[in-house]
Amino acid sequence: MPALLAGAAALGLLSGLCTGYLIQAGREPTRLPPLSQPRLDRTAGEASAPLPAARDRKAETDGDLRRLLLKKPDGARAAELMAEDSWMSLARLAKTYTNPAGGYGWLVEEEFRRAAAVAWIEGGTRSVEIRLLQFRQEEVLGAREEAENSYGWAGRDNDAESWAIPGTGDGKAYTYRAPRTRDGVKVYQARAHAWRGGVSLQIWMNDIKPIPKKAIVDLAKRQMERL
Predict the structure, then answer these.
(1) Which residue in 3, 27, 36, 161 has a CA-CA distance of 20 to 30 Å to 121?
(2) pLDDT digit string (tens) for 103-156?
(3) Other C-beta atoms lying within 10 Å of the C-beta of residue 157
Protein backbone atom coordinates (compact mmCIF):
# COMPACT_ATOMS: atom_id res chain seq x y z
CA MET A 1 0.00 0.00 0.00
CA PRO A 2 2.70 2.56 0.83
CA ALA A 3 4.46 1.70 -2.42
CA LEU A 4 1.27 2.37 -4.40
CA LEU A 5 0.80 5.76 -2.70
CA ALA A 6 4.41 6.75 -3.42
CA GLY A 7 4.03 5.78 -7.07
CA ALA A 8 0.82 7.78 -7.41
CA ALA A 9 2.49 10.85 -5.88
CA ALA A 10 5.41 10.60 -8.28
CA LEU A 11 3.07 10.27 -11.27
CA GLY A 12 1.08 13.28 -10.10
CA LEU A 13 4.23 15.38 -9.78
CA LEU A 14 5.48 14.35 -13.22
CA SER A 15 2.09 15.08 -14.75
CA GLY A 16 2.04 18.54 -13.19
CA LEU A 17 5.49 19.35 -14.52
CA CYS A 18 4.60 18.25 -18.04
CA THR A 19 1.39 20.25 -18.01
CA GLY A 20 3.23 23.37 -16.80
CA TYR A 21 5.88 22.97 -19.47
CA LEU A 22 3.30 22.63 -22.24
CA ILE A 23 1.46 25.72 -21.07
CA GLN A 24 4.68 27.77 -20.89
CA ALA A 25 5.87 26.52 -24.28
CA GLY A 26 2.67 27.69 -25.89
CA ARG A 27 3.02 31.27 -24.68
CA GLU A 28 4.70 34.15 -26.54
CA PRO A 29 8.27 34.72 -25.28
CA THR A 30 8.60 37.57 -22.80
CA ARG A 31 10.35 40.57 -24.39
CA LEU A 32 13.59 41.54 -22.60
CA PRO A 33 14.24 45.18 -21.68
CA PRO A 34 16.58 47.07 -24.05
CA LEU A 35 20.27 47.06 -23.11
CA SER A 36 20.80 50.72 -23.95
CA GLN A 37 19.36 53.60 -21.97
CA PRO A 38 16.76 55.81 -23.65
CA ARG A 39 18.09 58.92 -25.34
CA LEU A 40 18.16 61.91 -23.01
CA ASP A 41 16.83 65.12 -24.48
CA ARG A 42 18.82 68.30 -23.90
CA THR A 43 17.25 70.96 -21.79
CA ALA A 44 16.04 74.09 -23.47
CA GLY A 45 18.19 77.19 -23.52
CA GLU A 46 21.71 78.07 -24.63
CA ALA A 47 24.82 76.36 -23.27
CA SER A 48 26.99 78.21 -20.80
CA ALA A 49 29.64 80.38 -22.36
CA PRO A 50 33.22 79.07 -21.99
CA LEU A 51 35.47 80.75 -19.45
CA PRO A 52 37.44 83.68 -20.86
CA ALA A 53 41.16 82.96 -21.20
CA ALA A 54 41.92 85.44 -18.43
CA ARG A 55 39.99 83.22 -15.96
CA ASP A 56 40.88 79.81 -17.41
CA ARG A 57 44.09 78.79 -15.64
CA LYS A 58 44.51 75.67 -17.75
CA ALA A 59 44.38 77.74 -20.93
CA GLU A 60 47.03 80.03 -19.47
CA THR A 61 49.43 77.27 -18.44
CA ASP A 62 48.94 75.26 -21.64
CA GLY A 63 50.18 78.21 -23.65
CA ASP A 64 53.73 79.60 -23.64
CA LEU A 65 54.82 78.91 -20.05
CA ARG A 66 57.56 81.53 -20.33
CA ARG A 67 54.94 84.27 -20.56
CA LEU A 68 53.90 83.51 -16.98
CA LEU A 69 57.36 84.24 -15.58
CA LEU A 70 57.95 87.58 -13.90
CA LYS A 71 59.95 90.02 -15.98
CA LYS A 72 63.43 91.17 -15.08
CA PRO A 73 63.08 94.36 -12.97
CA ASP A 74 64.17 97.71 -14.31
CA GLY A 75 67.84 98.28 -13.56
CA ALA A 76 68.60 94.55 -13.11
CA ARG A 77 70.85 92.69 -15.50
CA ALA A 78 70.35 89.21 -16.91
CA ALA A 79 72.19 86.43 -15.09
CA GLU A 80 73.69 83.22 -16.42
CA LEU A 81 70.97 80.58 -16.62
CA MET A 82 71.00 76.82 -17.17
CA ALA A 83 68.33 77.18 -19.83
CA GLU A 84 68.06 77.75 -23.55
CA ASP A 85 65.78 80.58 -24.61
CA SER A 86 64.28 80.43 -21.09
CA TRP A 87 63.33 76.74 -21.53
CA MET A 88 64.98 74.30 -19.10
CA SER A 89 65.15 70.74 -20.40
CA LEU A 90 64.67 67.70 -18.20
CA ALA A 91 68.39 66.90 -18.42
CA ARG A 92 69.42 70.43 -17.39
CA LEU A 93 66.90 70.52 -14.58
CA ALA A 94 68.16 67.18 -13.27
CA LYS A 95 71.68 68.62 -13.07
CA THR A 96 70.48 71.06 -10.41
CA TYR A 97 69.75 68.13 -8.07
CA THR A 98 72.34 66.81 -5.60
CA ASN A 99 71.97 63.44 -7.32
CA PRO A 100 71.31 64.24 -11.02
CA ALA A 101 70.59 60.63 -12.02
CA GLY A 102 68.16 60.18 -9.15
CA GLY A 103 66.57 63.55 -9.85
CA TYR A 104 66.10 62.66 -13.51
CA GLY A 105 64.36 59.39 -12.68
CA TRP A 106 62.18 61.01 -10.04
CA LEU A 107 61.03 63.76 -12.42
CA VAL A 108 60.13 61.16 -15.05
CA GLU A 109 58.07 59.23 -12.48
CA GLU A 110 56.28 62.44 -11.50
CA GLU A 111 55.30 63.02 -15.16
CA PHE A 112 57.48 66.07 -15.77
CA ARG A 113 56.33 67.95 -18.86
CA ARG A 114 58.46 71.10 -19.22
CA ALA A 115 60.11 73.93 -17.30
CA ALA A 116 60.72 77.62 -17.91
CA ALA A 117 63.14 79.85 -16.03
CA VAL A 118 64.38 83.41 -15.72
CA ALA A 119 67.33 84.86 -13.77
CA TRP A 120 68.74 88.27 -13.02
CA ILE A 121 71.07 90.22 -10.71
CA GLU A 122 69.71 93.24 -8.87
CA GLY A 123 71.33 95.76 -6.57
CA GLY A 124 74.75 94.66 -7.75
CA THR A 125 74.99 91.62 -5.46
CA ARG A 126 71.62 89.83 -5.23
CA SER A 127 70.99 87.01 -7.71
CA VAL A 128 67.48 85.75 -8.36
CA GLU A 129 66.33 82.69 -10.28
CA ILE A 130 62.69 81.69 -10.84
CA ARG A 131 61.66 78.32 -12.25
CA LEU A 132 58.22 77.08 -13.25
CA LEU A 133 58.00 73.29 -13.47
CA GLN A 134 54.96 71.86 -15.25
CA PHE A 135 53.71 68.28 -14.84
CA ARG A 136 51.17 66.27 -16.86
CA GLN A 137 49.09 65.30 -13.79
CA GLU A 138 47.64 62.17 -15.45
CA GLU A 139 48.46 59.48 -12.87
CA VAL A 140 50.11 61.49 -10.07
CA LEU A 141 49.93 65.06 -8.76
CA GLY A 142 53.48 65.86 -9.78
CA ALA A 143 53.36 69.60 -9.06
CA ARG A 144 52.16 69.05 -5.50
CA GLU A 145 54.66 66.23 -4.95
CA GLU A 146 57.52 68.42 -6.18
CA ALA A 147 56.53 71.30 -3.90
CA GLU A 148 56.03 69.11 -0.83
CA ASN A 149 59.36 67.40 -1.45
CA SER A 150 61.01 70.82 -1.65
CA TYR A 151 59.41 71.92 1.63
CA GLY A 152 61.20 69.07 3.35
CA TRP A 153 64.59 69.90 1.86
CA ALA A 154 64.29 73.66 2.37
CA GLY A 155 63.30 73.44 6.03
CA ARG A 156 65.73 70.76 7.18
CA ASP A 157 68.50 73.19 8.29
CA ASN A 158 68.46 74.39 11.89
CA ASP A 159 68.88 78.05 10.91
CA ALA A 160 65.95 78.02 8.45
CA GLU A 161 63.00 80.31 9.07
CA SER A 162 59.83 79.65 7.08
CA TRP A 163 57.07 82.04 6.06
CA ALA A 164 53.69 81.43 4.44
CA ILE A 165 53.20 82.74 0.90
CA PRO A 166 49.81 84.53 0.84
CA GLY A 167 47.21 83.11 -1.51
CA THR A 168 48.93 79.75 -2.06
CA GLY A 169 47.46 77.45 0.56
CA ASP A 170 50.65 75.69 1.69
CA GLY A 171 53.33 77.63 -0.22
CA LYS A 172 56.39 78.55 1.86
CA ALA A 173 59.33 80.92 1.68
CA TYR A 174 62.56 80.35 3.60
CA THR A 175 65.38 82.56 4.80
CA TYR A 176 68.59 81.35 6.46
CA ARG A 177 70.36 83.15 9.27
CA ALA A 178 73.85 81.79 8.57
CA PRO A 179 75.69 82.37 5.27
CA ARG A 180 76.78 79.51 3.00
CA THR A 181 79.97 79.28 1.02
CA ARG A 182 79.33 79.38 -2.70
CA ASP A 183 82.18 79.47 -5.22
CA GLY A 184 84.49 80.52 -2.40
CA VAL A 185 82.25 83.43 -1.33
CA LYS A 186 80.02 83.52 1.75
CA VAL A 187 76.46 84.30 0.69
CA TYR A 188 73.07 84.44 2.38
CA GLN A 189 70.25 82.46 0.83
CA ALA A 190 66.47 82.52 0.56
CA ARG A 191 64.13 80.30 -1.41
CA ALA A 192 60.44 79.77 -2.04
CA HIS A 193 58.31 76.83 -3.13
CA ALA A 194 54.62 76.57 -4.00
CA TRP A 195 52.29 74.92 -6.51
CA ARG A 196 49.04 75.57 -8.32
CA GLY A 197 47.33 73.15 -10.69
CA GLY A 198 50.01 71.36 -12.68
CA VAL A 199 52.76 73.95 -12.09
CA SER A 200 55.21 74.15 -9.20
CA LEU A 201 57.34 77.17 -8.36
CA GLN A 202 60.98 77.39 -7.28
CA ILE A 203 62.67 80.68 -6.39
CA TRP A 204 66.32 80.97 -5.36
CA MET A 205 67.95 84.13 -3.97
CA ASN A 206 71.59 84.70 -3.02
CA ASP A 207 73.24 87.84 -1.65
CA ILE A 208 76.33 88.82 0.32
CA LYS A 209 73.94 90.53 2.76
CA PRO A 210 71.10 88.92 4.74
CA ILE A 211 67.91 88.65 2.67
CA PRO A 212 64.82 90.00 4.44
CA LYS A 213 61.62 88.01 4.65
CA LYS A 214 59.70 90.64 2.66
CA ALA A 215 61.96 90.30 -0.38
CA ILE A 216 61.40 86.57 -0.90
CA VAL A 217 57.75 86.46 0.21
CA ASP A 218 56.65 89.38 -1.97
CA LEU A 219 58.47 87.99 -5.01
CA ALA A 220 56.87 84.57 -4.57
CA LYS A 221 53.43 86.11 -4.06
CA ARG A 222 53.70 88.17 -7.25
CA GLN A 223 54.87 85.16 -9.26
CA MET A 224 52.05 82.92 -7.99
CA GLU A 225 49.49 85.59 -8.89
CA ARG A 226 50.44 85.03 -12.53
CA LEU A 227 49.53 81.32 -12.44
Answers:
(1) 161
(2) 999 999 999 999 999 999 999 899 999 999 999 999 999 999 999 999 999 999
(3) 14
Write out pLDDT tens, residues 169-197: 999 999 999 999 988 889 999 999 999 99
Cα separation, 51 vs 2, in Å, equals 87
Phi, psi dihedral angles at 55 (to 5 degrees): -105, -10
Ordered DSSP codes for 65-101: GGGGSPPPPTT-EE---SSBTTB--HHHHHTTSSSHH
Within 10 Å of residue 68's Cβ, how many Cβ atoms?
Answer: 16
- Band (56; pLDDT cuts 50, 70, 90): very low
Interval 64-90: pLDDT, tens? 999 999 999 999 999 988 788 899 999
53 burial class (0-12, 13-18, 19+ CB within 10 angstroms)? exposed
